[in-house]
Amino acid sequence: MKLFGGIEAGGTKCVCMVGNHPDHLLQEERFPTTTPGETIHKMIEFFLPYVKSRELAGIGIASFGPLDLNLNSPTYGYITTTPKAGWSHVDLYGEIQQSLNVPVAFDTDVNAAAFGEQYWIHEDRCLDPFVYVTVGTGIGVGVIINGAPLHGLVHGEAGHFALPHDWQGDPFPGVCPYHGDCLEGLASGFAMSKRWGESPERLAESHPAWDLEAGYLALALVNLIYAYSPQRIILGGGVSQHPGLLQLVHCKVHQILNGYVQSPMLNRINEYILPPTLGNRSGGLGAIAIAIRQLSEAHGQATR
Amino acid sequence: MKLFGGIEAGGTKCVCMVGNHPDHLLQEERFPTTTPGETIHKMIEFFLPYVKSRELAGIGIASFGPLDLNLNSPTYGYITTTPKAGWSHVDLYGEIQQSLNVPVAFDTDVNAAAFGEQYWIHEDRCLDPFVYVTVGTGIGVGVIINGAPLHGLVHGEAGHFALPHDWQGDPFPGVCPYHGDCLEGLASGFAMSKRWGESPERLAESHPAWDLEAGYLALALVNLIYAYSPQRIILGGGVSQHPGLLQLVHCKVHQILNGYVQSPMLNRINEYILPPTLGNRSGGLGAIAIAIRQLSEAHGQATR
Q1: What DSSP character marks residue B275?
Q2: What is the pTM of this model?
Q3: Residue A90 and residue A77: Cα distance in Å, rounded?
Q4: Which residues in chain B have Cβ-Cβ distances shorter than 8 Å to A81?
Q5: pLDDT < 50 stretches in chain B
Q6: Which of A75, A145, A254 is the best substitution to test chain B (most B C-beta atoms within 10 A)?
Q7: Alpha helices (runs of H) in B175-281, residue ranges in sequence order
Q8: Which of A178, A261, A267 to mutate to test the interface with B (most CBs of B within 10 A)?
Q9: Model ipTM value
């Protein structure tokens, strides 16, 4: 079987991998995201031997955003208006594609992670819609509906949901430069650090920060349940891995739903809202999965 | 061309129509929604002559919910846990299908209305995702993604989004029996009546109710934009038709987005968030559209 490349381009680090299955990865490398020139050069260097040996059938890129995913746009494949210094209007897709000259699939890090978890772990694909939420430095939401990552005017941005904010209980104004106290503004790892003066991994399990955090995440998950009626929600990212947080979130999601949505699945909420099975490889393995999908669709079209 | 039937089953009234195009309706009837027995009997009586004359190729039902849309469920086609007296666990699909013995398509009133507006008005189908919001006695949201109405665990319930609620500016606790101050609890026609002691149509254009209403609807629409990244949003229902409200909503959506989503479409927001072109026939004509779609898909499958 041919090999595929996966790139997860994150705001702080990048992951490159080559393989064709979670259990069959030939090489994997992680490096910090610095300038676009230096970072993209490292990506290209990583894949070049596989291109030269003609083993690589395609590459998937799972990138931080916002991204231009409109195939008819002259700036398709660009990172657009990111606050990350130097990375606005970078043609990530184009530089990789032109340097390596293989088919490249391109999507948001969270859409690719959602697709990866669905593709590699829930292979029957009947878990659709399928939602992946990451809570790390920022908050992102990826969605697969009818077998495809959700694209529209741009792509989903549910990390910026407007949510109830009890200013008396939590006078913190939020950190989102666009919205102040949206979901990401209130509940991202960066927001936690700013609110408590301590990074989340240093906050004890008994710290009131976690009850507040679980409350915001539960409100967000309920809104995601109302929006997509997903068959499964994966809760990933560094902050979500804090011991005990997921159980608190489960409990609060039940409280907020208050019996409104009737489904047997919601009575087994610990099987409904889950940590990622692929762990911190969801993005990279998702990137490989979207590359495989794109190639098989291209072949499907060619033979039609 | 064959004829199709459309049923819009609403909480207060029902619409039955026969035809195959918005400009080609042979008969249309509106009657109040009373008991299930009486109401469903009226629907059957309406269509019976067209079934007997073998002119009717199928019927679409656009119903108030919640509904069981899971094709593998023994209660597929039932209205499930509605607060509407007498209508819980009514087999609406089954009674129509068995009495008339024609193919029946079944979906929520809002999914059908969304599909109808997309199908009849934006026939190129490239406006996808496509969102229909109704603000009447209650609030509902229908969504078309990748050409199909959104179904999942159940169906979308974005009318119950959790939203910011400024208790100081608006101490009204909300009317939702499940969530209190969710979107429907704060901004439905029923909520307006309860808050102001006057039905919405009797509140003057200059009444502060409308600024508050526009604020809640704008927050909801921004969350819908973040969730689905829709290519178009239709804002229907009786409350939405209040003079000046849509313009207020446009203005507030822009304020809340605050430039976060970059798309030329958002600079023409009066072309992006629109009233329904089919008016109060979106549901019935949408029901006809889902019936046509189901029949053409069945034929597609048969010839594959």
Answers
A1: -
A2: 0.96
A3: 9
A4: 262
A5: 303-304
A6: A145
A7: 183-187, 189-196, 208-228, 245-257, 269-272
A8: A261
A9: 0.96
